[in-house]
Write a structure and sequence with these properties.
Pfam families: HTH_30 (PF13556), PucR (PF07905). The protein is of the alpha+beta class. It has 19 helices and 13 strands. A hairpin with a 4-residue loop joins strand 6 and strand 7. It is elongated, with a radius of gyration of 37 Å.
């Protein structure tokens, strides 16, 4: 079904039996959306594009400059063509007009026999309305065919075949991983030409290719793009509407395939558990990766733990993994995932250079937390811990242990949002180890008990002052500004700290010890451990 009319189609109608094409023969393929009778000189603002103009030329008669102005307005407005009744008001088309129209491929048709314009408009408008009705019927039929196919189809080529039969133009499906699929299949040289045309000619004013496109989105993320590209005809609204419906059908097919794929991944759970526990050899790891993830080329790996509060559970785990997978794949990662104790444990495999892996992971996590999934489906912000990066896949168990340690440490930190990475925890890793192996609380009290007791008994701010003074490297001016207090108040507090900690508390070795104990004190407080031994004065 041809859903559009061209100037050439209209010239086949009965009212155009006696016409002459004076200029712009190469533009006879222009689409016609409507027919207008124009007898005024200022017409640019009256047109929306693709109108076929009928005129007796009474507005300009033999005034060449006025005729040129009108032609320029028509070309700029993307009119389909100009039909002029010859005889009553004009008999000759100036050479300049012919040259201008030929250059712009703008058809000028001379009507040699007098015909009532109202009969032409009635005929063409009736034809256009019927074509519009046929187009809607065709779109409905197209949608029904696609819906029926989705129940049993096995490959997206079946959908591409349907749209090709409707539009009779080259179909290209481009995926985010730079893979391109052509229907019908063509040679490599022509593929290269068309891909270059897509990149360079979309913005061209007069492109020799006509291109329409529609994104294919899965779970709010762009997964692929569907394009129609033609060199033989201009693509119109019907092509775009067909394309949009086909893109929706492809999105449904791909999401179904991804859900099936995700269910298949459940089989991976037992093997992934063994890998996390360090029970897999390099040979078995590579063998299983080749089976479960045949296209992956690992350059390293790390473990990420995504954990909700104990009483809460991730709603629709399959949906979560599909969404996070789409985010990570765009940034060069693939992953295997299992669920344990309200946590999702992901072995994330890096397929790019390792120099910027943390930056890419940060981007992915930020995207996940900002998503509609997180805002609407998960009530509280999750705890996320990323273990150390390992290039040797046999060492994934080490990354797993450090990811567990990261989550534990972040739960005990006053500000757990400062980083997701084990590598960035620095001194807190040492504090965590000491807290497990020693009575860290007792050591902290050995250094800080006088200050803690003073604040407890006098509702003081000495601990806050000490922390700020250390952070500002002993700068009194910066400390006062940071605490929003005057210098005299700060001097009074520092004198009190010297009485409690000793006048040498800012000497190098003692300062390092006190600073370490301040951080340990915050760590223990955040762990909800109660301090003892604080006596009232």
């Amino acid at each position: 079904m041809k859903s559009y009319l061209t100037v050439e189609d209209i010239l086949q109608r009965k009212h155009f039996e006696k016409v002459e094409i004076a200029a712009g023969k190469e533009g006879l393929h222009h689409h016609v959306k409507w027919v207008h009778i124009v007898e005024v000189t200022n017409i640019g603002k009256l047109l929306k594009g693709n109108e076929l103009i009928l005129s007796t030329a009474v507005a300009w008669k033999e005034k060449k400059e006025l005729f040129i102005s009108i032609l320029q307005q028509l070309i700029k407005s993307n009119a389909a063509g100009l039909c002029i009744e010859i005889g009553t008001y004009t008999s000759v088309i100036p050479h300049e007009i012919i040259t201008m129209a030929n250059k712009a491929q703008f058809p000028i048709i001379l009507i040699l026999k007098e015909v009532p314009f109202v009969e032409i408009t009635q005929d063409i408008h009736t034809l256009l309305i019927n074509r519009q009705y046929d187009m809607l019927a065709s779109l409905e039929k197209h949608s029904q065919v696609l819906n029926k196919m989705l129940l049993s189809m096995n490959h997206y080529d079946e959908i591409l075949k349907v749209i090709y039969e409707d539009v009779q133009a080259q179909i290209i499906l481009t995926f985010n991983n730079q893979e391109n699929h052509f229907f019908p299949e063509i040679g490599d040289v022509k593929k290269s030409i068309l891909l270059k045309a897509i990149e360079t000619e979309r913005s061209a004013i007069l492109s020799k290719y006509s291109i329409v496109s529609a994104p294919i989105e899965l779970l709010g993320e762009k997964y692929a793009e569907l394009l129609i590209i033609s060199q033989d005809r201009d693509l119109i609204e019907f092509d775009q509407l067909i394309l949009d419906r086909t893109a929706n059908a492809l999105a449904q097919f791909f999401i179904r395939e991804l859900f099936v794929e995700e269910k298949r991944r459940v089989e991976e759970t037992e093997w992934v558990n063994c890998w996390l526990d360090g029970e897999e050899t390099k040979a078995s790891i590579m063998e299983n990766l080749a089976y479960y993830m045949p296209t992956v080329s690992p350059k390293g790996a790390f473990v990420c733990i995504y954990q909700q509060e104990e009483q809460k559970k991730i709603i629709n785990l399959t949906y979560f993994k599909l969404y996070f997978r789409s985010i990570l794949e765009q940034r060069g990662f693939s992953f295997l995932a299992i669920e344990k104790h309200h946590s999702v444990i992901l072995i994330i495999i890096n397929e790019r250079q390792s120099t910027d892996w943390k930056k890419r992971v940060n981007e992915a996590i930020s995207k996940l937390l900002e998503s509609e999934l997180e805002r609407g489906r998960v009530e509280s912000k999750p705890m996320i811990g990323v273990g150390k990066y390992v290039e040797n896949l046999e060492k994934v168990s080490d990354s797993y242990q450090t990811a567990i340690e990261t989550v534990k440490i972040k739960k005990s930190m006053a500000d757990p949002a400062n980083s997701y990475f084990y590598d960035d925890l620095h001194i807190f890793r040492v504090i965590s180890i000491l807290n497990r192996q020693l009575d860290l609380q007792e050591i902290v009290m050995e250094y800080l008990e006088p200050v803690i007791s003073y604040d407890f008994n006098h509702n003081g701010k000495l601990m806050d002052t000490l922390k700020a003074y250390l952070a500002c490297n002993g700068s009194k001016k910066e400390t006062a500004q940071k605490l929003f207090i005057v210098r005299q108040t700060l001097y009074h507090r520092l004198e009190k700290l010297e009485q409690l900690l000793g006048t040498d508390f800012m000497t190098h070795e003692k300062r390092l010890a006190i600073e370490f104990m301040v951080m340990s004190h915050e760590f223990i407080l955040a762990s909800n451990q109660e301090f003892s031994g604080i006596k009232k004065a």
